[in-house]
Automatic annotation (TrEMBL):
Keywords: Transferase. It comes from Actinidia chinensis var. chinensis (Chinese soft-hair kiwi). This is Thiosulfate sulfurtransferase. It comes from the Eukaryota. SUPFAM superfamilies: Rhodanese/Cell cycle control phosphatase. InterPro entries: Rhodanese-like_dom, Rhodanese-like_dom_sf, STR17/STR18/HARC1-like. GO terms for molecular function: transferase activity. Residues 23-125 form the Rhodanese domain. PROSITE patterns: RHODANESE_3 (PS50206).
Amino acid sequence: MDSKPSLPVEVITVDVHAAKELIHSGHRYLDVRTAEEFKKGHVHVENTLNIPYMFNTPQGRVKNPEFMEQVLSVFKKEDPLVIGCQSGVRSVYATTDLLTAGFKHVLNMGGGYAAWVENGFGVTKPEEQIGL
């Protein structure tokens, strides 16, 4: 009995310490926050990429209809990825979608950018915000 297609995918969440180690050992970091959030500050690691999972609209946040297409234009399904957002909620949804689409090595960063900052890890911010 092959019931695999109907089984939900299992999202593996790692804390920011594990995420940092994974990123420094070869995983790519995908920030799924809005472009506005990303520009205010983001995780300081090499090759950080921002592909928003949701957009802010006058009606509230809506899912980016081209999210999967945009991710597939940059990454292969075999690429090891760590997915992060602001607090770890959107990244769970993004990770679920990626795993459902056949990505093999995708991990959710629990706590998101907020936890990264709380732990004192490096961040990249626009020049005018440095020192605030």
